[in-house]
Structures
1.
Amino acid sequence: MIFKKRVLFFGLFLFLGLFLMPNFVFGENKNLCVVYITGIGCPNCAFTDAVFFSELTQKYPNLIIIEYEIYQQHKENSSTASEYYKNYNIPGYIPLLIVNKDKWLQGRDNVLKFNDLIKGLKNNYFPLENGSEISFKELVLTSLPGQPKIWTKNRVLIKKGDKGDNELLKKLLLTDDISAVLENINFEKKEPKEISLSGIKFSKLDVVSSIKFNNAVKLDDWFFQWNEQEIENNEAIKSKKENKNNTLKNKNQFKFDKNLIPLIGIILALIISILLLLKIGRKKYET
């Protein structure tokens, strides 16, 4: 009787493992989303812009900064900034960094303490202008108000209008292989534009005043710029993909997904445990 209960227990354990393991092994990326309100011409923002867009995005690969610039883009972004001030009960000045309703930093000296604020914070939902929060997975970038810039790693996504493919835009922000994401996509290759930071107005300050990029594409109403691998035009990408597919067919290659290794290992361990238990039970039965 005890033996049967053990077998039943391990069978249940195996079932739960198979059911829950995909979420454990293949869980969504843990993104650290924040909102940053700044203004080109703000002297204090000159120091914080430089740190956020040239240092912290490199230090924290999962950090996603949604920036609202409100001086040069007053018409586009000031009303969104006002909503954040009102719904988060925050005084109306910059620079301002919002993590959530309970965690926000304002003023140069405080914003530069960002490292202390997020210490131990592995992920963070995106704080919406209405005071609520949403995961990056559920966030619809095309519905973001105003004209934000979205920074992560060494890339930036710039909104110019409401038209765009939400899932594609998020893939471009998160992927390690931008060329692969763009393979079957219609895009317009553009000349990269240098992004001015607040320090551009203060030449005497020893701060980063702009960020340069070596790649840029236009996707509907969005501009995407980055400093990683070079991108070619649509025809070149299509030709390379066809050649690659032909090579794979000729060589009959099989590509093993390395992400399956942890899952396979756990399944094998569970199976071995059950087999050992069955063997022990059989010996007890024979004796």
2.
Amino acid sequence: MKKILLSVISVFLCASILRGAGQYSITMFVVRPPFDINFSSPRHLMISFASNAFGMYQSVPKYNMGHVYVSIDGPESHVITGSSRHKSSRTGWSNFIKGYGLGMLFCSFPGRLDDEQKINFKIASRYRDGSLSFIRFIISKATYDRVMEYYKEYLIRTEYQFYNGENKPREGLGAGCTAYAISFLQVAGLLNDEFEPLWAQAVRVPTELVGGPLTGHKVSGLKILASRRWAAADEPHFLFKIYDPLLMHNWIKKVVQNRNDRISFYISDNHALSACPFERIKIENSPGLIFDCRNITTPDEPIFLVPGSGSTGCSAK
């Protein structure tokens, strides 16, 4: 009972810190994986993923690749959301056994939105162990309205039913947890391609390691373990790109730790965020950044870039 009471108090205290009175904001909460994910080769990627999937650690729930939530707040409203694979879906390991190999990286799985009532408690439980980091963006009313319009339309289109896929939620082509969260920052005009080398992984997956519907091949786990490099640009491959919670978490942590550095040490002076007042904070052992972005112009481009059904060429039912 005492533990539950402390959790409730922690939830409300942390929420009050990150939800300024009378302000509109977007907050991205990043949960790092229990162990580092190694993208240096197909072999290392498979080994590090297996270490997270089957390793022993205390954090619950366990996120094998990390996880990201996003909160949208106004003076009288609060929405917190995240994208996950559906709990009833067992297609991941089933398809791996069927010989999908690294074709799994491109497949769409049955998806769902995280339970709002549980997210706050999941976040609060991670402040102490430092596996969580966060960035809060204070935004204008116009930007807030645009982001909320995107969120509501996303629900109406039921795009959340397609997890992963091509990780292009604004085009209706699926979204993992990071692509989903990042899309809110893109809709708000707070993120551009400059952050890709800072927060994203991009690898050329050799076609010979891609099984399933994309190629019609079967690929064994042993073949992946024997593969020690990604494909060169002139070799047959599929490009896999994903925003990586580990890179995002480490970047936030680095900026917060180096308190005397200007933000321009980490992003160029040309980026809109470089002109935004910001502060570094910590909630227990979790590092965070707060940017005041109220002067950034609200984008006027379409919220959904291409109307789509959410399906991909490698869907897993």
